[in-house]
Specification:
Blueprint (H helix, E strand, L loop, with lengths): L5 H5 L23 H5 L1 E6 L2 E3 L3 H6 L3 H4 L4 H4 L4 E3 L1 E2 L8 E7 L6 E7 L9 E5 L9 E3 L8 E3 L19 E7 L4 E5 L5 E5 L3 E4 L15 H9 L33 E2 L11 E2 L20
Parallel strand pairs: 14-15
Antiparallel strand pairs: 1-5, 1-7, 2-3, 4-5, 5-6, 8-13, 9-10, 9-13, 10-11, 11-12
Keywords: Ribonucleoprotein, Ribosomal protein, RNA-binding, rRNA-binding
GO cellular component, one term: cytosolic large ribosomal subunit
Protein name: Large ribosomal subunit protein uL2
Amino acid sequence: MGRVIRAQRKGAGSVFRSHTKHRKGAPRLRALDFAERHGYIKGVVKENPTPVHPTEILTSISPSTAVELNTTSALANYATEDIIHDPGRGAPLAMVHFRDPYRFKTRKELFIAPEGMYTGQFLYCGKRANLQIGNVMPVGTMPEGTIVCNLEEKTGDRGRLARASGNYATVIAHNPDTKKTRVKLPSGAKKVIPSNNRAMVGIVAGGGRIDKPILKAGRAYHKYKAKRNCWPKVRGVAMNPVEHPHGGGNHQHIGKASTVKRGTSAGRKIGLIAARRTGRIRGGKTDTKKGDD
């Protein structure tokens, strides 16, 4: 009798939860308020102080003044960053400062940065904002064919769709009678959402990230260290027969059909489970709408 295989040890699993220990924060749109519903509010991509270790400050200051320096006050203004990297995320983030419409204070919001955003750029969020890269506005006010990202799935949820690096959604059509808008998602699926749902104009920055080859195991190690424990993944044909149904043999081969039935036992359910077809799809669909010449 063989051992309990990897798929059995993992089990059915649960709802996915990403590891967020070293993340900069949860990027999302502003909370929907009166200013955005009826007009617009202005923000700026501004430098944000980040904490620096006291030893880094002391090494850049003369030893005579280092004794008298209050390091806690120096921490606030030493290092600044505006468009930042978020560990475990491919897309960069932007720190946007808004003036609170009701109180004398500044509100800092963390946005997913689209391509073309820069430090010092002014952003406008609201119904009456202009159609420019980085602005946030309802999809119902955008013309058809507009490229958007960080799209709300439900009104006021602050962004749920098209948030990964290089992703975007496309506004296809509007229906003024039902106040609905049809959009095309990055997966190619078309979805009908309320026209009051907000989105950011532009494409998420960091596109083409997966085109660059990893080349060595060290980079893959650090990539998945920031994400989750899913690397390295040993192939079944590289294992012993006691550890996997595909293991064993004088050369690495499965040795049997890789397709298994749906109701097979848990220790044998590996490979192509209840596959309707296998192999590559060759050729393309013929266009039946072409008229005879």
